Amino acid sequence: METVVRMGEASASRTAGDTLACIGLGSCIGLALVDRAKGVAALAHVMLPETTQPDPPQPHKFADLAVPSLIAMAVAQGASRVRLEACLVGGAAMFSFGGSGQDIGQRNDHAVTKLLDEHRIPVRATATGGSKGRTIRVSVGADITITVREAGGIEEHLLGAVAAGKAALV
Amino acid sequence: MTTFSDMQLDALRELANIGSGNAGTALGSMLGKSVDISVPTAAALPLAEAVAIAGEPDELRYGVVVPIVGDFEAIVVLLFPEADAQKLCGIYGIEPSTPDGCSMLGEVGNILGTNYINVLAQMVGMELEPEPPQVVEDMLGSILSSVLIGRGDDVEEALILDSDLLVEDENCSLSFLLLPNHGGIKELLGRLGL
Q1: Which secondary structure element, helix H or strand E, spans residue A46, and what is its range?
Q2: Does B47 touch chain A (CB under 8 A)?
Q3: What is the pairing mode between strands A123-128 and A10-13?
Q4: Architecture of domain A2-159
Q5: Biggest alpha carbon–alpha carbon distance for chain B
Q6: Residue B25 sits in a domain of what CATH number?
Q7: Is the interface score ipTM higher than 0.90?
Q8: Which of A25, A52, A97 is closest, CB to CB, to B142?
């Protein structure tokens, strides 16, 4: 079953054959955490770097709340905290709306990366920045694979199972 | 959880009706063709659902984004399916994927956005000004989500005023969205006495 993780949402699974996807990421970040030994994956669709209010209704909107919460979701599905690995997709700068300093995509990317570092979770692959939208798909199973597709492009592997002669599963 | 009353949404829908009527007339005279406008919808939606209003998140669209600044901040977004962008540019014998084509789509955004907000500005006595249009070809979800959080504001729901324009003869349609920022919309409703 494919679960589409929409803006500000998160989902986790250990059911082989499940897919978790963030479709059409722009400046948002699709953050995937996986325990490949246990076949557990979790995916969050992060919109903003920092919480702006106490106890927000959608904690996964914010990097600072999404990272610890997503770790807990993965662990609750049976992942081992120390085996978690991360992939980041998104954080594009599609438009410039004036404003000050860094664009929101880059700030999201930096916030998530910094938090993963603080939680000592290694980042195995990223497809971030640039100006194009992207889709991330995480296939759950004994052999977890993560793919990314840019707008108008083809699906490329970010993590796992590019076994001999098996190119991108378009 | 919506923060707008039915009466407020009705008033906004009426504003959108007048704005898009004016915008459609302006586009029609630029193209020398008649332009039909659907009855607009006004909806306040949670962000996760707001993206779905215009279609599937992974569909490719040409998007023209016109930021509105002044007494009221908002973003105008035009969305063209590729075939419709081609038909529209085809009126002038150009391709949408070329720099000329992008410029043409940007100009359509400029004309529609400016005429739409000019009427709003006159009706409510606000100073409003469009910024230069930005044209992209990307996934619908990427375009809308990036616009919705474009300035990095935290909003729970998006107010979307949505009209469809149809260029007759060419059978070419586009979606016109006005996404006001939250403070701006309160100000606008305040001036209308709502």
Answers
A1: strand A40-46
A2: yes
A3: unpaired
A4: 2-Layer Sandwich (3.30)
A5: 48
A6: 3.40.1550.10
A7: no
A8: A25
